[in-house]
Design brief:
It is a single chain. The protein is an alpha/beta fold and about 260 residues long. It has a single domain, classed as NAD(P)-binding Rossmann-like Domain (Rossmann fold, 3-Layer(aba) Sandwich). The chain is about 45% helix and about 15% strand. The strands form two sheets. Strands 3-2-1-4-5-6-9 form a seven-stranded parallel β-sheet, with helices on both faces. A two-stranded parallel ribbon has the order 7-8. The longest helix has 27 residues, at about 100-125. The model has no long low-confidence stretch (mean pLDDT about 90).
Amino acid sequence: MTSWTLITGASEGLGVEFARLAARDGHNLILTARSKDKLDALADELRSDSVQVVVIPADLSDISEAERLWANATDGRNIDVLVNNAGLAYYGAFASDQGWDRMLSSIQVNILALTRLMNLAIPHMKAQPKGRILNVASLAAFSPGPNMAVYNATKAYVLSVSEAVATELGGSNVTVTALCPGVTATNFFEDADMKGVWLVNVTKPMSAVKVAQDGWRKARLGRRSVVPGLMNKIMAFSTRFSPIKLNAAITGKIMGKGTR
């Protein structure tokens, strides 16, 4: 049976680049996100005589949609690569009624849907020659984030669960990789209302193409975690030697709006 790659959040940003890389490598694709029009346009771009593309729109803020997605995706298909790329963020004070819906959706997409898809994928992949799971975390996973408390916490979860499950699967035919990019040239910051954040203003973002290439290549090699970019590696490494209180204070400064 032909093998397939399932990519969530495939309508823009890193998701689009992962889809292009997979198609370039000859993978058949299952693309999912909320926007059917964007998915259809990407499918038209990537579909060829050697690459099949299936579009399954889904809103992963509803856990039942994650289960429906998996059931439809595996109907007559073997999935050997899962890219958990879908993610949401809320920027603002934690104690904000206005932000609650966005924070709740972030937890549901970043944690619940990702976890359920991993949970479904692993036994499915174990029955095949090999399987690769690539979970998109963030540099934010390495530190608490004032004004992005829920987002940073969800990405810390993604990194932690990826490392733990990778250990459980050691020696098996299935690997799990956590990709932890820093500031990347996507629509993420606009969607999260982060215009004016100091770090975003002063940092030259990595291209989505380079981040996706790094994550895709190292996931194919079975690497457990990937932090693209030298400065991002230094920042991630340095947090391991600093008190959490200090990390949180520094993160709050650089992620503040109007910070100098």
